[in-house]
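Figure 3 (text version): structure tokens given as input.
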């Protein structure tokens, strides 16, 4: 029995089982039955046509056919008769040679073997054309022969030759033991094995038979007969060792097989084997569970029954490659159609199966990735929807901006004339007005101004979006800008009794857009007043340092929560939505300020300590901008 990489193949395992069966034949059976069993086991294991055991009579030296398999119950008489009639001796031909020389004798074609000529007719009639003869030996003496026959002429492999030899040597031991037992069966002899130490110190084994010699009922003597069975015992010990080895290998093989079966059946992944045509040979429980089928419904079916057209093309491509001996290192994704028509996805890795040098099929391990695939598909769906919504939003935004731009221009013209005429009326250019009328005209004037301010903010947003602010840069004085901005909000401060504190150093000129920077500072100051209760203070500080010119506006107002300090610079953002009604405004001012400051390469940020807020602006000095080349 040869082992490949420590693992026996199926044929080797069945031959090993056969040898074990021969070695463990019950030797207390009838001797003929023992011989028939040996022959049967050997023929079945070798897939042979038939076989015979011939034994040599110890006394006469004559050869007789003692057992046969596959040749009919009257074979022995028939052959013996035929041989007698044809004047052929059993000791002639290859079997005679095997017995005489005690050597193994293969006959690949009986009809081409001159020594077998006397047996041609009998072989033809019985239907076999090739045979092997292996001697059964007791020590060095040939006591018989195992002959195995095949229907067709054939060359014998080393494995087959070794197997017949093994079978013959195990049969020799079994026959010998059986003959010993058989001989003692019908006697009152007591059989005993004993160890005897011979004078030369070598350990010998003796078989001692004792017989009681009786005179009537009286025992008159004990007759003893000793036989040296050392050789037998050695052989028996060897046999036992071989048997133990065989049993161990067999058990290991069985264990390995069980482990593999367990792994195959209970694996979380689904496993299967296909033949070279793509028909299912095996499939494990996980695979059946996925398909929702029984084994019978899958085994023998073609993969095309279970795959989508696209996956079938992929799988057949893989199968083709593997049959030509190319194993793929990467997995393929297949879409399976289950029994209930549900579609599932698997990530499959495959390897070809070899029997010797021949590729006999493909082994596949697949991981069910249906959930992953479904999520992927959902994600793709969402992405597409998102892309569509995004496009719709961009379009809606474009339409909105266009609308705002149009409407603001349309509103600005009449509002400007309302403001102008209100001013004329208020100045009494068109005639005298009383106190009450003046108050009302002032209200109209202020609200018109607010509306114009809001519309201008909206226009700025439009410009911001189009990224074309159109800043008018020039050398400007920040001190002038601060003074003008304070003047702009003076009236509001007075109305709320808020004091404006100034801490303004003499500042160097900067490169900027005077109108826009005034707009920024006015906005920051206006917010400070808007969000500060009456009688509070708003402090404006300005100085220069390494960073540039820094202007800070600190109020004693409602303050800004820490997590909102950045959001307030986003468009339309107001900390408290109800502040819109309480304080007015549209949440646009700071985002416009930020854009203007950043277009001046400066920065703006807010701080709040819980009571009041501080808005800081840093603008680069002229020298710094020149250095940076901006
Ligand atoms: P609005 O026109 O609503 O004032 P802004 O963009 O100028 O819009 O300001 C956004 C929001 O930031 C305001 O609605 C307010 O919630 C908050 N905010 C701005 N300045 C101050 C301040 N000095 N004190 C407290 N909150 C302020």
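Below: residues designed for each position.
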């Amino acid at each position: 029995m040869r082992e490949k990489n420590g693992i026996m193949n199926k044929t080797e395992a069945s031959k090993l089982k056969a040898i074990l069966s021969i070695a463990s034949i019950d030797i207390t059976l009838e001797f003929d039955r023992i011989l028939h069993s040996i022959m049967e086991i050997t023929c079945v294991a070798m897939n042979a046509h038939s076989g015979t055991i011939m034994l040599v009579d110890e006394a006469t030296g004559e050869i007789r056919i003692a057992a046969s398999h596959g040749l009919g119950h009257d074979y022995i008489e028939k052959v013996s008769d035929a041989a007698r009639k044809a004047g052929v001796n059993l000791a002639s031909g290859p079997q005679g040679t095997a017995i005489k020389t005690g050597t193994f004798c293969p006959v690949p074609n009986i009809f081409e073997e001159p020594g077998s000529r006397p047996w041609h007719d009998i072989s033809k009639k019985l239907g076999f054309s090739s045979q092997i003869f292996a001697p059964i030996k007791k020590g060095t003496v040939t006591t018989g022969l195992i002959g195995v026959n095949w229907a067709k002429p054939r060359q014998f492999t080393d494995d087959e030759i070794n197997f017949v030899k093994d079978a013959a040597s195990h049969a020799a031991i079994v026959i010998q033991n059986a003959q010993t037992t058989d001989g003692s069966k019908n006697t009152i002899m007591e059989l005993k094995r004993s160890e005897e130490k011979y004078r030369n110190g070598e350990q010998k084994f003796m078989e001692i038979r004792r017989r009681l010699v009786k005179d009537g009922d009286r025992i008159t003597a004990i007759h003893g007969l000793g036989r040296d069975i050392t050789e037998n015992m050695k052989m028996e010990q060897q046999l036992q060792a071989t048997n133990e080895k065989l049993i161990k290998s067999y058990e290991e093989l069985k264990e390995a097989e069980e482990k593999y079966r367990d792994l195959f059946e209970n694996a979380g992944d689904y496993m299967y084997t296909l033949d070279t045509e793509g028909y299912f040979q095996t499939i494990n429980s996980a695979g059946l569970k996925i398909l929702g089928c029984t084994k019978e419904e899958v085994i023998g079916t073609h993969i095309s029954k279970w795959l989508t057209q696209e996956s079938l093309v992929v799988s057949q491509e893989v199968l083709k490659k593997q049959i030509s001996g190319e194993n793929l290192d990467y997995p393929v994704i297949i879409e399976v159609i289950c029994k209930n028509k549900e579609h599932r996805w698997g990530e499959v890795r495959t390897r070809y199966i070899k029997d010797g040098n021949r590729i006999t099929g493909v082994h596949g391990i697949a991981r069910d990735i249906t959930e992953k695939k479904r999520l992927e598909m959902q994600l793709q769906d969402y992405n597409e929807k998102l892309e569509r919504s995004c496009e719709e939003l961009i379009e809606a935004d474009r339409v909105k901006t266009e609308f705002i731009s149009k409407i603001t221009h349309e509103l600005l013209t009449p509002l400007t004339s309302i403001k102008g005429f209100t001013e004329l009326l208020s100045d009494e250019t068109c005639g005298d007005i009383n106190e009450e009328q003046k108050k009302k005209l002032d209200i109209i004037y202020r609200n018109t101004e607010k509306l114009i301010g809001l519309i201008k903010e909206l226009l700025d947003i439009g410009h911001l979006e189009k990224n074309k602010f159109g800043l008018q840069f020039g050398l400007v004085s920040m001190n002038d800008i601060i003074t003008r901005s304070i003047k702009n909000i003076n009236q509001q401060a007075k109305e709320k009794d808020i004091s404006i504190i100034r801490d303004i150093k003499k500042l160097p000129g900067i490169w900027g857009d005077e109108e826009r920077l005034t707009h920024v500072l006015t906005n920051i100051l206006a917010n400070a007043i808007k969000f500060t209760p009456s009688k509070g203070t708003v402090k404006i500080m300005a100085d220069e340092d390494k960073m540039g010119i820094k202007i800070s506006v600190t109020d004693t107002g409602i303050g800004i929560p820490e997590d909102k300090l950045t959001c307030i610079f986003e468009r339309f953002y107001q900390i408290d939505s109800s502040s819109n009604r309480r304080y007015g405004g549209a949440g646009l001012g700071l985002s416009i300020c930020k854009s203007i400051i950043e277009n001046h390469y400066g920065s703006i940020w807010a701080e709040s300590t819980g009571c009041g807020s501080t808005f800081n602006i840093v603008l680069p000095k002229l020298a710094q901008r020149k250095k940076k080349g901006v």
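The pocket of adenosine-5'-diphosphate is lined by residues 527-528, 531, 555, 557-558, 560, 568, 573-575, 579, 585-591, 613 (CB under 6 Å).
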